[in-house]
Design brief:
The chain is an alpha/beta fold. It has helices at about 15-25, 45-55, 70-80, 95-110, 125-130, and strands spanning about 35, 60-65, 85-90.
Length: about 130
């Protein structure tokens, strides 16, 4: 699903997510935000997001970790290793998550130096005004 300005890809595992990111990058697309559950088949969310931050192509990609089972140590690892921008414990409020992603996507657009006016429908106006 998607619109003219952004697409959303849903993947079943960390390895699948990385493969899709590789494919999208090869096609010239940008990866603005990665949202990962902590518990997944294969790589856990911290491992996936650490792989993302260690790939120079995605150094500015924003990262969100969702969890219902992580420990305090997992949270510390996510922040230190994967340098996540946001962490949500289940159950999370959908509006809060959407607003967070909107803000992170806005920050990504500015970090990349894109013309923010072309992205008006998805931007966080508070972040734009800062």
């Amino acid at each position: 699903m998607g619109s003219k300005s952004h697409d959303i890809s849903i993947n079943d595992s960390g390895d699948e997510a990385l493969a899709v990111m590789d494919e999208l990058d090869a096609e010239g697309h940008y990866i603005g935000v990665v949202i990962s559950d902590h518990i997944m088949p294969g790589k856990n969310g911290v491992e996936l997001l650490t792989d993302v931050i260690n790939d120079s192509r995605f150094i500015k990609t924003k990262k969100v970790l969702l969890t219902g089972q992580a420990t305090h140590q997992d949270t510390i690892a996510a922040i230190n290793q994967a340098r996540i921008e946001s962490y949500f414990e289940k159950p999370w409020d959908a509006d809060t998550l959407v607003n967070c992603v909107r803000t992170l996507l806005t920050e990504y657009i500015f970090d990349m130096g894109f013309d923010y006016q072309a992205w008006g429908e998805v931007l966080d106006s508070t972040t734009v005004l800062r």
